[in-house]
Specification:
about 400 residues, alpha/beta, eight-stranded mixed beta sheet, two-stranded antiparallel sheet
Length: about 400
Amino acid sequence: MEFEAVRPKYSPPLQSLHLLQVHVFFRHGDRSPTPAFGNSNPEVWSSRLEAVPPLLQPQNYQYQERPFGHLTRKGAEQARGLGAWIKDAYLEELGVDTSQPDSFLRVRSTNFLRTHMTAWFVLEALLGSGELAASVPICISEDRLENLYHNDHCARLAKLWRASLSRKRQAEVRPDGTVQETGWCDQFEDIRFSFSKHLDLPQGKRFPWVLAADVVHCALAHGDPVPDNFTVEKLCEIRDFLAQDYVSSFQDKEICELSMGRLLREVVSSMENHRDTPSLYLYSGHDATLVPLSVALGRPWQSWPSYAASISIELWRSLEDSNQHFVRVLYDGVAVPLPVELEGIEQTWKPEQQNIIKSSKKTLFTLQEFVKLAGWTMLSDAEFQNKCQCI
């Protein structure tokens, strides 16, 4: 299991093509667990947090009780590492003047202190100084307009999301009133007790696997004690099952388009109008950004994204024909094949359709092909608002 952020590799520049524009979506760096459980050691986690940069403009963030859910010093270093990678991979290729970042750069963050700080440290490494980083506005949307994760302010999406979760949370109540979970969870009943004891959780209720796995992952990342008889391999298994559950929710076409449709529309619009738009876009988000985006692109993320994981969408122009444009997608700096045939994603991804992905070797698309590929989920703002009202 990766407890450190994966330093992205980089697929080499493409021959006979010129890089015009890049969109980089990334998860925040290492953070403290969230939320706090009975014995989550607030004093210890407080000592690990990164200080808020003095030049960072504070916002009215989504509330999370300090010190939980906040960026650690390790997370800040991971963000700087990502910024250094973006600098090495793209700035020279794009031919930009780093002394004037507002001429080529746009940055967005979700309304969380950890993502805002991650964006800051990425900028600091990308531009080489805190002063230049401070000159770049980090845009944060109103919560009701946010499109970097599935937004419960959309009534239709909230309803669909609750229905999707209820289908996964199958459980049976034993005669003694305790809960027997079914599905993949019953494979891990032997370690559930040690989880509950370690985290001081009440017995007999539905077990919070996502939150528990998060707390244990954070502990392992910092060398803290973990539950008795617990192994890293078990945590990997649990997180892989959780990732599969999470991916499957977005394989519902309507959930995916209401979650990522507007964001992909923005990306495609900026590419189609690249002469009048910046050349580098940075988006500081969450695992809840990367996973649904990967599903929308037809290449679902196969495991839980690591801290500072990234998806890059690149726009290239042919040196031989200036009207010919191409798109390449990179996960953690590696070009990934996307589905060549679109029939498998017209409505809903299914496990038996994974052969479409496995058989695809194509990593470079014409802009028109990419628009068609992304089109199964793209929504305009007006379309989004209309769909959200259909309760």
